[in-house]
C-alpha cells in the first residue's frame, strides 16, 4: 500500500518536473522566499516542536536552525541568477573556431533524508539548494525527532503542492520503501552505517548521491595556542546541542606539556557556560537508546569532571574523561554526545598517528600558533571540513562547501556547492559553419598525422 502511495508521489513529481514549471529563475526565487516566509510565520510552532523533542531553548533554536536557514536562503537568492547562468569555458586549438560553455540543469526528482540532531537545518538546507537548482523534492526527516518531523510535514505540505515539494514522515520501513523508487538525486545525512544502505539502494537506479555522514573528528591543541581562547571555543563546540553535532570535536588531543592547564581551564569553562536543562543553556539526549549508549561509554574511573546522568530527563552532564587510550570503548565509535575524551601527545607526528588510526573524519580542528604545526597537520591528515583556532563555525560560512571524505561522506552541501550537488552541468561545444578543417576526415595522410601529432604535443619531451 505504502509502496503504491510513495511511487505515486514520485510519479506525480516526475510529471510535474517534466512540465518545466520548476526551472525558471522567478519560480525558484519565489519558492525560496516562500520557504523563508513559512518558517518565519510558523516560528513559534517550529520552536515548540523542537522544545518537545530536546528541551531546546529559543536562543539555540534560532542560532542553529532559523539563523542558519535564513543565511542559506538569503545567500542563495542573492546568487541564484549568477549560479544558474551558462558558464563560458576555454576552447582548445583543435576545435578552433568554436565557443565552449557549461549549462547547469536540474536533475529532476530528489529525495532528501535527514537526521534529528538539527532537524530543520539538516532537512531544509539541502531543500534550499534543491529548489535553487530547479528540482522537485521529497523530504524525509528523522522519525527520532518526532515533533519536529510532524511540524515540518504539516507546515510544508500545507504550503507546497505534493507534486513539487512533499514531506514524508517515517522510519526505517518508510525510508526503505522510498529508496526502492527511482530518484534523480538522493541527498542523505546520517550515519556511515545507513549511508552504505542508501548508497547500495541508489546504485540500483544509478542515482547520484550526496552522503553527509559522521565519524570521529579530533581537536588538536598544541602547546603554543592561546589556551584561554582555545578552550572557550572548543568547550562551546563540544557541548553545543549536548554534543549531538556531526562536526563537534569528538575527542581532544592536547600537547602533554599543557594537559593539566587545559583540563582545569576546560572545567572552569564548563562551569561558566552554566549548562542546565532548566536555564535553556543545554539540551536533552534525543532518546532512551542514545542515552543508554552514551552512559555505557563513560568509564567512571577516568572521569575528570561531570559524569552525572538522569535517565528520566535524558540528561548527561558535560563530561571530560582523562587517561584515555585509543583502545578504550569511548574511542571505538563516534560519540555524538557530551563526553570529551582527552588524550595527550608529545610530538606532532604522534598526534597525526593517533588520528590516522580512525577513518578519515568529517571535521578536524587545530588550535596552535605555529604555522609549521598547522601546516603539518593540514598536509598529513585528510578530513572533510575544519577550522584553525575555532570549531564548528566553518559551517556558518556559505562560501565554504561542506562535506566529508572517505567514510565521512561524499559530495558537498551549502551555497554554490549545494546548488552544484543538485545540478548537472551540460557541456557544450558550439561551432560556426564558416570554417571546417579537413584534418580529422579521411582520407588520412602522413601530413595530416604529423599535424595532429604536433597539435597533441606528442613529440614534446617532458
Ligand atoms: P541514522 O543514519 O540512523 O538516520 C538517518 C536517517 O536515515 C533517518 O532519517 C532514518 O530514518 C534513516 N534510516 C535509519 N536507518 C535506516 C535504514 N536501515 N534504512 C533506511 N533508512 C534508515 O543517523 P542518526 O542517528 O539520525 O544521526 C546521527 C548520525 O548522523 C551521526 O553519525 C552524525 O555524525 C551524522 N550526521 C551527519 C551530518 C553531516 O552533515 N555530515 C549531520 C548530522 C548528523
Overview of the structural elements:
- This protein is of the alpha/beta class.
- It folds into 2 domains: 2-213 and 412-424, Aldehyde Dehydrogenase, Chain A, domain 1, CATH 3.40.605.10; 218-403, Aldehyde Dehydrogenase, Chain A, domain 2, CATH 3.40.309.10.
- The protein is built from 15 helices and 18 strands.
- The strands form 4 sheets. A 7-stranded mixed β-sheet has the order 10-13-14-9-8-15-16. The protein has a 6-stranded mixed β-sheet with strand order 5-4-3-6-7-17, with helices on both faces.
- A hairpin with a 4-residue loop joins strand 11 (309-310) and strand 12.
- Helix 4 (58-84) runs parallel beside helix 5 (119-132) and helix 9 packs across helix 10.
- The protein is globular.
- The protein starts with a helix and ends in a 6-residue tail after the last helix.
- The model has no long low-confidence stretch (mean pLDDT 97).
- Nicotinamide-adenine-dinucleotide is lined by residues 113-117, 122, 140, 142-144, 171-172, 175-176, 189-191, 194, 197, 212-214, 246, 334, 336, 362, 404, 409.
